[in-house]
Design goal:
Blueprint (H helix, E strand, L loop, with lengths): L7 H4 L12 H12 L6 E5 L6 H12 L14 H4 L7 E5 L6 H11 L9 E6 L6 H12 L5 E7 L7 H4 L3 E4 L5 H14 L3 E2 L1 H10 L4 H12 L4 E2 L1 H7 L5 H12 L3 H12 L5 H21 L3 H17 L9 H10 L8 H8 L4 H4 L2 H22 L7 H21 L2 H17 L7 H4 L3 E5 L3 E6 L2 H9 L1 H12 L4 E6 H16 L44
Parallel strand pairs: 1-4, 1-5, 2-3, 3-4, 6-7, 9-10
Antiparallel strand pairs: 8-9
C-alpha cells in the first residue's frame, strides 16, 4: 500500500493567494494584475528560501488559467484548478540541474507549441540564477518577445547573480522574510490542526531558528512532533544546538557588570554542550545590539562604544574561527577584553579546588600569575586612552593624523623597505597571543606602503580600520616589544587606499613634490611624533608600490 503521509510543509503548501503567509504586497499586486487582465509575459520572484516564491508562482499559474475566474479569484472546480499539480501546461524547471544552453534551447523549441487545454503555457524556472551565461544569452530573445500564450515566472534566492539583461525584461516581485509574529501565528494554527502539543516558548524558538523561512519552520516542527508528544523549549534547544534567551541575557548581564567569574562559569558550561556557535553568536549579537541601543538612548556613550566594538569583533569572528580551536574560547576572549578581572580570581579558584599553597607557588602558577600581571598592565594602558576615543574632537584628530601620515609615507616610501616591513608585520601578527587585545584588530591587515618611520596598513572592513587607529598607541608599543623596531602606523580601508593611490599617481603626473609635514599633536601629548628629515624631491611610482604595474603617461 502506498504511503500517503506528507511532511507538514507539503501538506500545508498554500493553494490560494489568501493562504500565502507574510507576502501581502506581492500577493495584492498579482491579484490586481489578474483582475485587470494585465498579465505580463515574464515575472521574477526574488527572496530568501522558504518564503513562498514557487508556491505563489503555481497559484498565479492556476489563477490565470482558471476557466471560471471571478474578480481575480479562481473557481477551484474547473480542470485547470483541479489539476494544478498535474497540468501539462504548467512546466516547472529546476535551473540548478538544468542550467546548460542545450536545456534552454529545448525549452525555446517547446515554447512555440500551443497549450494543450489551458489559456497560457506557464514556465516556472526555479533557482534561475544557476543558469550558465550561455543559457541566459539563449533565453534573452524568447524572454523579451515570447508567443502570446507563454508566461515565464523566474524564481531566485540570489537576484544579484541574475544578469541585468534578464531583469530588465521581467516584472520583479520581492518576497520578504516572515516576521517572528507571522511565523508564530502560522505555527500555532498548524499545531492546533495536527493536535501537536507545543509550548509558546518552543514555538518562538522555532520561529527564531527558521530565520524568516516558513518551510524551515514547518520542517523543524515536523521533525520534533514525530518523536515528542509534548514539545517544550528544552526539546528545541537540545535538538537544534540552540541556546536559551535566558542564558544569552545572563551572559550580557555579566559582561556589562564586569562579572568575570560568572561569565567564565557560564562559558564553561556552554562549551561542554552541543550548542551551535553560529546560532549562539547570532543571538548574542542580537542581544548586545539591544543593549547598545539602550545605552545610546540613555546617553551612556562609554557603554555604547564598548558594546559596539564588541559587536564588531564578534561579527568578525564568524569568518576567523578555526575548527581546531573551541569557538567559545574565542567568543569568551572577545567578551572579557573589556571586563575588569579581579586580581585574586585565580587564587580564589585554587582555594575552591583545595589546591595547596605549594601548588600555587609552583613554577607553572608563577608563570600564570606573571601572565595575569601582563594582562592587567595591558588593561591599564588601554584605560589610559579611553577618554581619548569618546569625542568628535579625537576622531577629527585621528582623521588629520591619517592624512599627514599618508602624505609623509608617500614622501619617503621605499620599495625595499616595503618587503622587509611586510615580513616583519607577518611575524608580529604570528607572535601575538589569542589573549592580546589587538590580535583581532591586526590579524587581517596588510602593509602596503613603507618608509623608515611609517607603515601604511589596510583592511577590508571600515570598522576594523577605526578600531586600529583608535588603538595606535597600544599597537605601536606592542610592535616595538615584539620586533624591537620603533615604527608608526596608520590604517586605511581597502577602498580609501585605492583612492589614495589614484590621487598619488595624478599628483606625480602633475610634477607635485610631496613634503614631510609635522604631525598634529593630541592635546599635551608630545611623544611619538615623527620629526621632519631630509628626503628626495619625489619618488617614482614604481619604487613604492609592491607588485603593481602602473604606466604614467
Amino acid at each position: 500500500m502506498a504511503n500517503d503521509y506528507k511532511v507538514l510543509y507539503r501538506k500545508y503548501r498554500p493553494t490560494t493567494f489568501d493562504e500565502i503567509v507574510g507576502q501581502k504586497f506581492s500577493v495584492e499586486m498579482l491579484k490586481n494584475a489578474v483582475s485587470s487582465d494585465k498579465i505580463s509575459h515574464a515575472y521574477i520572484f526574488t527572496g530568501p528560501r522558504g518564503t513562498g516564491k514557487t508556491s505563489t508562482a503555481k497559484i498565479f499559474a492556476k489563477t490565470i488559467n482558471c476557466e471560471n475566474l471571478k474578480d481575480g479569484i479562481p473557481c477551484g472546480e474547473c480542470n485547470s484548478c483541479k489539476n494544478i499539480n498535474n497540468n501539462a501546461d504548467i512546466i516547472e524547471i529546476d535551473a540548478a540541474s538544468n542550467n546548460g544552453v542545450d536545456e534552454i534551447r529545448e525549452l525555446i523549441n517547446n515554447v512555440k507549441i500551443a497549450p494543450s487545454f489551458s489559456k497560457y503555457k506557464v514556465y516556472i524556472i526555479d533557482e534561475v540564477h544557476m543558469l550558465s551565461q550561455s543559457a541566459f544569452n539563449a533565453l534573452l530573445l524568447t524572454l523579451e518577445e515570447p508567443p502570446s500564450h507563454i508566461v515565464f515566472i523566474l524564481a531566485t534566492t540570489n537576484i544579484e547573480n541574475v544578469p541585468i539583461t534578464i531583469l530588465s525584461r521581467c516584472q520583479r516581485y520581492d518576497f520578504k522574510k516572515l516576521s517572528d509574529d507571522e511565523l508564530i501565528n502560522h505555527l500555532k494554527k498548524i499545531a492546533a490542526k495536527e493536535n501537536i502539543s507545543i509550548s509558546e516558548d518552543a514555538i518562538r524558538e522555532i520561529a527564531y531558528l527558521s530565520e524568516g523561512g516558513c518551510r524551515d519552520a514547518l520542517s523543524i516542527l515536523n521533525q520534533l512532533s514525530t518523536s515528542n508528544n509534548n514539545i517544550e523549549l528544552e526539546t528545541v534547544l537540545n535538538n537544534y544546538g540552540s541556546v536559551s534567551l535566558i542564558q544569552i541575557k545572563n551572559i550580557v548581564k555579566y559582561y556589562i557588570a564586569d562579572d568575570y567569574d560568572k561569565l567564565k562559569e557560564l562559558f564553561d558550561n556552554i562549551s561542554k554542550s552541543s550548542i551551535d556557535y553560529k546560532t549562539f553568536l547570532k543571538k548574542l549579537i542580537d542581544q548586545l545590539f539591544i543593549e547598545a541601543l539602550n545605552a545610546k538612548v540613555s546617553h551612556n556613550d562609554n557603554k555604547y562604544l564598548n558594546i559596539r566594538e564588541t559587536i564588531f569583533e564578534l561579527n568578525d569572528l564568524i569568518n576567523k574561527i578555526n575548527i581546531n580551536i573551541d569557538p567559545f574560547v574565542l567568543i569568551f576572549l572577545v567578551l572579557v577584553k573589556n571586563v575588569e578581572i579581579p586580581n585574586d580570581s585565580l587564587k580564589e579558584k585554587a582555594q575552591q579546588d583545595d589546591v595547596s599553597q605549594e601548588t600555587i607557588n609552583s613554577p607553572k602558577n608563577i608563570i600564570e600569575e606573571k601572565e595575569l600581571e601582563v594582562q592587567e598592565k595591558n588593561i591599564e594602558i588601554e584605560n589610559e586612552n579611553i577618554g581619548l576615543v569618546e569625542t568628535d574632537e579625537y576622531y577629527n584628530y585621528l582623521q588629520q593624523l591619517k592624512e599627514v601620515r599618508l602624505n609623509n609615507c608617500f614622501a619617503e616610501a621605499d620599495k625595499s623597505l616595503l618587503l622587509d616591513s611586510k615580513e616583519r608585520w607577518l611575524n608580529f601578527n604570528n607572535s601575538l597571543n589569542l589573549t592580546d587585545s589587538i590580535k583581532s584588530i591586526v590579524i587581517d591587515s596588510e602593509v602596503v606602503l613603507a618608509s623608515s618611520k611609517l607603515n601604511i596598513v589596510i583592511d577590508t572592513q571600515e570598522s576594523i580600520v577605526d578600531m586600529f587607529n583608535k588603538e595606535l598607541i597600544n599597537i605601536e608599543k606592542k610592535y616595538f616589544e615584539i620586533t624591537n623596531v620603533k615604527m608608526h602606523f596608520i590604517a586605511l580601508s581597502s577602498k580609501d587606499w585605492e583612492k589614495s593611490k589614484k590621487e598619488y599617481i595624478k599628483k606625480i603626473k602633475e610634477k607635485y613634490v610631496y613634503q614631510v609635514m609635522d604631525e598634529p599633536i593630541w592635546k599635551d601629548k608630545q611623544e611619538d611624533v615623527i620629526l621632519d628629515d631630509e628626503h628626495e624631491d619625489y619618488l617614482n611610482v614604481l619604487d613604492i608600490f609592491d607588485k603593481e604595474k602602473i604606466e604614467i603617461q
